[in-house]
Amino acid sequence: MTRGRIRAKLRQSHLYTFNCLRPSASETEGPHPLPRPGHSRTIYCNQPLLHRKKPLKYCSNFISTTKYNPITFLPKALFEQFRRVANVYFLLAAIISLTAVSPFSPVSMIAPLAFVVGLSMAKEALEDWRRFLQDMKVNLRKVSVHKGDGVFGYRPWHKIRVGDVVKVEKDQFFPADLLLLSSSYEDGICYVETMNLDGETNLKVKRCLEVTLPVDDDEAFKDFRGTIQCEDPNPNLYTFVGNLEYDRQVYPLDPSQILLRDSKLRNTAYVYGVVIFTGHDSKVMQNATKSPSKRSRIERKMDYIIYLLFSLLVLISLVSSIGFAVKTKFQMPDAWYLRPDNTEDMYNPKKPALSGLIHLVTALILYGYLIPISLYVSIEVVKVLQATFINQDIHMYCEETGNPAQARTSNLNEELGQVDTILSDKTGTLTCNQMDFLKCSIAGSAYGARSSEVELAAAKQMAIDLGEQEDELSNFPMQKSSAPSSWENRMASEIELETVVTSSYEKDHKPTIKGFSFEDSRLMNGNWLKEPNADVLLLFFRILAVCHTAIPELNEETGSFTYEAESPDEGAFLVAAREFGFEFCKRTQSSVFVREKYPSLVEREYKILGMLDFTSKRKRMSVIVRDEDGQIFLLCKGADSIIFDRLSKNGRMYEEIASKHLNEYGEAGLRTLALAYRKLKESEYSAWNSEFQKAKTSMGTDRETMLEQVSDMIEKELVLVGATAVEDKLQKGVPQCIDKLAQAGLKIWVLTGDKMETAINIGYACSLLRQGMKKICITTTINSDTLAQDSKETFLLFANDQAVKENIINQITNASRMVKLEKDPHAAFALIIDGKTLSYALEDDIKDQFLGLAVDCASVICCRVSPKQKAMVTRLVKEGTGKTTLAIGDGANDVGMIQEADIGVGISGVEGMQAVMASDFSIAQFRFLERLLVVHGHWCYKRIAQMICYFFYKNIAFGLTLFYFEAFTGFSGQSIYDDWYMLSFNVILTSLPVISLGVFEQDVSSEVCLQFPALYQQGPRNLFFDWYRILGWMGNGVYSSLIIFFLNIIIFYDQAYRAGGQTADMTVMGTAMFTCIIWAVNCQIALTMSHFTWIQHLLVWGSIVMWYLFLLLYGMMSPIYSGNAYKILIEALGPAPIFWSATLLVTITCNLPYLAHISFQRSFNPMDHHIIQEIKYYKKDVEDQHMWTRERSKARQETKIGFTARVDAKIRQLRGRLQKKQTSIIIQNAAESTL
């Protein structure tokens, strides 16, 4: 608390100089007019009892992200189940089974349907129950609430009401949207982290009204009263309009006094606030969308297959009913033993049409086995088991947080294998928001020996490619000369040296200082004093230590200072300055104190005379200070293009060499800033300061423009000192993960609430952007400085607000034309757009053009987007491309896009669980997305696709034999199979093998999936569930049904099958045919499997054994139960050799075409996984490593983003230089030979 009070003495207006000085009550613009409707909310502060009755009763603070509640569960869950067409059919069949026309008993139809639907509903209920428990974790969080008489006590979040005064302590989340009344700081400021809202981790400063500053302890709230009139609930995070009536005066409110739910209080002991919006009225929940019901593409396609099978069912039922009607009319009168003169309508020869119609209903139920009711239940079981494997995958377990991967819904497992576009948040998802000071250029000298991640990858790849380059060299028709050889050796040695240095460094010098990965002894431990330009180095370090807005905090345990900075870059600069011997240790309202260790320890004071903040428009920051000698300096840091344009003629001494270093740093994926200074005369500063104070205290709308103009007056005639290069600390494995996903053919979009510059730098760090990539930046603000920043960038800028929309259309059209006319096959485009422009681009008449341009670009970055815009962009991509989208994020601001995407993935990090609660899958870090998609997604897609195709195959093979027999027996409606055979077919005898296929099948191992990422494209291209394959399996089922039926008829018809001369009756025929079906379909699934474990062997061959055991036990039961099947195996079929011969012959004949097909395909038109399987089977990956490496390099999609694309670009650049070098050598040698 003492430390807080000390820090509270800092008036933040001295730090944030673009904010005008705090006006007194008399100077304020006055209360906001609050028009109605839209601004009708009234809150009585500290009087929550008044809000218990309407019209002042507002929604509770209880939140829910579940799909169902106790009232809606039954109707909504039933609706979900009967969205499936097959379930609708079986529901109708179950209803019809209650009538006399049904060939089966009602129980045999109703029980399976109730079991299937009930099991699926139970699974839905379980998953929603888990969501409910996670919601309750949030709802039951405790916060201190004023209970009356100045007494505060803890209360669960969900019991907080509008008007309550709450006390939030350090590192707690705000339970609702609050009006800040006071804080532990004397000037009423507090620091807020809004990561869950806008993705930014740099702290925001909020401040209360001056009038409520005295209300700063528990006792002060005993008699506190006030009335707030404000806007109604809305999703706008950055606006707020309202008035506070307090002590008979009205004070205007703005967003700087509002603390939003799910923000976190940081570096402030406590704050007091009054609740304005609760629960679903809060701005973060207003940005949330309802939890949608998602279905996978395969499941939706299954509906069309069901339609097709239902059409086949209706067709054969019509054939059957017509045949029955014809038979009834023409043959029934001759069948005197059936008493046609005294029969029901079903067999009445006088009403054949009615008889045929009734028989149609019978046939529709009889042939119902064509539509597999157990398919859905089998899929549910398989998906739950697949989800269990995802949850248990040790490779997706994060040891740091203890969080495993979690499939929060198993409905979408196969969708993981069909993703086309990934839409990712930035902060907390891609980044750790940590910068490391890596290199610097000072006075024309480059410092910093450590390589960036991009340099390491390039060196490694070049070392691999060296052999190929040597082959290319050998093809050049040059004379023998030592020059090429020496150059070649030098190149090889450079690569070898870089690799060795890097690897040894990684082993011996693991970074221990957060924010500082610099390695160069010339600058460390005071050695910089021995450098030739020590005075410039001194100035460089002082700029790092003084030019910032950070606040130091003493770590009492270590004795060193940590820094609360506006941006991670600034924090890294201060850590670097500290390590170089210039420790920023104290800040007052007017001074900055720095401890300089070299040449001797001394604490210097720099008086702050003025500060010009960094903004995305200015791209620079300056501070004007007076040193202890009375000299005035302007210290400036900013984008190199901005600084270089403001250099004086005498200040350009190091410009050329610094530009070269900056380009090298940029190619290495580092974030760069240039540092410069200017020495000011007292009179010059005084004249400028008077103008600056006028602009600073002006109250007009053009205050910011005036400040910008005054700043430009002083920020010129600079002298360049040097440049810095910091490395974005991405989450572990992010660049590699993005690279692998890009090689797998996935497109990656970044949607962030962060600034454009930050987003672009992160794009470079994770290789979504690279040097040489042509950037199309769409923004609605003009910035002449930006135009000069990169000559390769295409900036689409707008001046006239009224013409913005038309200009956006024109510029998108021009950009699209530019992309399409590009002839360089290696050219890559990146689209970068901000939230304001995006609001126009998402309008109905522009969005299709915008999407077309975005799809043509290699990478897309949307910055400064709101949570709702994230969801709208996701919807546009999903609906516009018609392909599977995956959204991934970690904060409440990502919930909208997570729910809108086909698949939502939440990062279960340390900052809240909102994203996880709304997601379909959760992982601990972004890097696990690689395994989730490339391994589990690939497996799940192929397993489910093969499983469904096989399911339809076996049911067609079984169901059509019923039709053939009915046609064979005069369309009598008679089934050839015993009822118990039919009931056990899907439930017992064929269900377990198909489940084992869906759970354990692997075309290749997980390691191979990661080594050959292009295999993933089998999913997005839908190679295993397209109509060609589906119809092929159906055709296989029709073929098998024909063979099974007619081959058995030929074998058993009109001849004895037993030694005693007995011929086959219907039961024998049915049992023989059913045995052939069991053998054929189980052998077929064995041929389909690529990966066998003992479990598959047990289930496949055990199912066949199970059939014989069933036949044996069923036949031993009393004839009352077994009927004609009494002892059929022991006495009838078992002793008959023809039965076993027929089974063998039919099984081989059924599976022969499939065996021939896969043999031909593997021999002449193999798929990717076939080749890999063969290589692995013959162990060529071990015996011929070169061949294995070559195949791996082929097995990646051509991509223009990611590490690999970046390294490829670097290699193309180096090869170009090599070719030029070789050409010059040839010319030189030719010239020498002529002489």
TrEMBL record:
The active site is at D425. Mg(2+) binds at D425, T427, D890, D894. This is Phospholipid-transporting ATPase. It is a multi-pass membrane protein. GO terms for cellular component: plasma membrane. The lineage of its organism: Eukaryota, Viridiplantae, Streptophyta, Embryophyta, Tracheophyta. It catalyses: ATP + H2O + phospholipidSide 1 = ADP + phosphate + phospholipidSide 2. PROSITE patterns: ATPASE_E1_E2 (PS00154). Its EC number is 7.6.2.1. It comes from Parasponia andersonii (Sponia andersonii). NCBIfam families: ATPase-Plipid (TIGR01652), ATPase_P-type (TIGR01494). It holds the Pfam family PhoLip_ATPase_N. The chain crosses the membrane at residues 86-104, 110-126, 304-326, 356-377, 951-968, 980-1000, 1030-1053, 1068-1087, 1099-1117, 1137-1156.
